[in-house]
Specification:
19% strand; 17% helix; 7 helices; five-stranded parallel sheet; 415 residues; eight-stranded antiparallel sheet; alpha+beta; 20 strands; elongated; single chain
Amino acid sequence: MSSLLFAVLLSGCSEYGLETDPDGVDLLALEPNVDVDGDGIPDVNLDTDGDGVADLDIDLDGDGIPDINLDLDGDGVADLDIDIDSDGIPDINLDVDDDLVPDLDIDTNGDQDPDVNVDLDGDGIPDINIDNDGDLFPDINIVDSFVVPEITDVDIVFFGDTSGSMEEELAQIGGRIAEFTQRLAAQGGDWQLASVNGDDGCAIDTVFTPETPDWATRFADAVLVQPNDEDTDERGLVTVARAVEQVGPNDCNAGLLRPNAMVHAIMLSDENDESPGFDGGNPDYWQPFVDRIVASKAGVQGLVRLSAIAGPTPDGCDGADPGFGYVEAMQGTGGTFLSICDAWEEQLDLLAQASVVQDTFALSVRPDPATIQITVNLMPVPASDWVYDAVTNSVRFVNNAPDVNMLVEIRYEVP
């Protein structure tokens, strides 16, 4: 193993402008204490293992300073030093693993800052830093890896704006709910469903399942129930956030969230969201509500989806104001948007698909977006297939979302 490693590294020296075969002599074939350049100083000194110590010294440039020093494992310590630029400072230092720490340092530009540092896994910590541009910051130092889960369960939280102008739309969703759940089942999903409204976030009637008696009719009735305080009937985001925070055994929505299920909140309104802060001048007022919803799934962004049936932004449409707040929350979680002015009731399959497909992946730290590189099953993904959302610090596939059990790796540099 060590002989193979040495041979590979020595043969690779030519990549850095070194001559591994000076004067036509194959260094790998030399006997101990060989003077390649005739200066009286051994260019190859091999003592395996006498021990008069060097267990491989090679002086490539004849300056009397070994350019390669291999001691496996005498131990007189270096377990591989290679000085590419003859400055007396090893450019490659491999110590596997005595441990005087680096388990591979490579300095290709002679600035004494390793360009490649690999520690697998000493652990003195970097487990691969690469600086190709010499800015002293690793070019690729974060790799977030995901195996796309098979999502078979989905917990649907439905918010409907119960103001006077919405009666027809609420009746439509009530009349189509059985069709929607059939499409969910066709996608392989096992579902639960709650209708919430008003500030308290509690489900109207109950949390419906396929086993709930007469559940479709009861849901259709539930979406029409107005909150006690009519001023809260357009506060969709805060209502959904409170709904998913009240799922304990003694809470009003007990059992609503299952551990491995997707949470899909669907919000129906012909107005903008009016949750607290909407009129305070902060365009990102909606983010804390989304954060609370994501927190209900232990912060796993990929298991939360918010979709909206609302007026398109920024101008709305005939009969509906723009759905500010709802649209941004939808975009931030990779949900689906249906225009309330179109025949949205004919597009419920899009909502069903959004309930069981993971296409959004949260990053572990904030990246330099220009450095993001994505592979799926080790194959590069073109930039046209994904977008980075700085608000949610996540990558969302807009084309060719990865299938179940595929490996998604997202590499990026920290600014």
